[in-house]
Amino acid sequence: MATTLHLKALAAGAALLALAACDSSWTGGAPLGSHLDEGRFGNPTMNNVLIMSGQRSYVESLQDRFAAEVPTTINFAFDSAYLDAEAQSVLRRQAAWIRHFPEVRFSVYGHTDLVGSDGYNYNLGLRRARAVVNFLVSQGVNRHRLEALVSRGESEPVVATTERERQNRRTVTVVSGFVQNHPIVLNGEYARIVQRNWVTSAQSED
Predict the structure, then answer these.
(1) Which of 5, 50, 163, 171 has the CA that lies 20 to 30 A from 56?
(2) Does the model's pTM come out above 0.90?
(3) Domains parsed from the chain with CATH numbers
(4) Alpha helix locations (H) across the chain?
């Protein structure tokens, strides 16, 4: 009997290893989904909620619309979180779009180039994300809808160079989920939100 139990345990362990090997995103040293973790509890939990509730595809559709209709990225001067005139113009357009979708949540990801230490760049990325969130709030966006201030630091460069590179010094605004207590969301009418017609008057608010 002991031998049988031992063999069953070995077989179960082998099956688990095989399942893990089938998932190309598993790194062996980090839990699945850990790439979503921004150092807080929110993002992995939100991602699980979106998948389990079937909202994920609607979020992706909205993100596609957002990226098609509004620039999602702004850039910064070296070692700076200052929003220049060009950045502010883009953020006004983002704010107009975001105000038009009051049921939707957004995340802002801060990035840096590869000059400087990891720790310093992480904090600089966070400062950039906070600058964007504060500006969007000044344009009438509810701060509670900008739920994830995230820094990617220097970990995701657009251009792989150790030199100063403006394209890497950026923030990216993305659709991250839905306001769960909004009446339309409570009724599960995600498709209605995604399919809402874009009105030109919203852009005229810039």
Answers:
(1) 171
(2) no
(3) 37-203 (3.30.1330.60)
(4) 2-22, 42-53, 56-69, 85-100, 118-138, 183-186, 190-194, 200-203
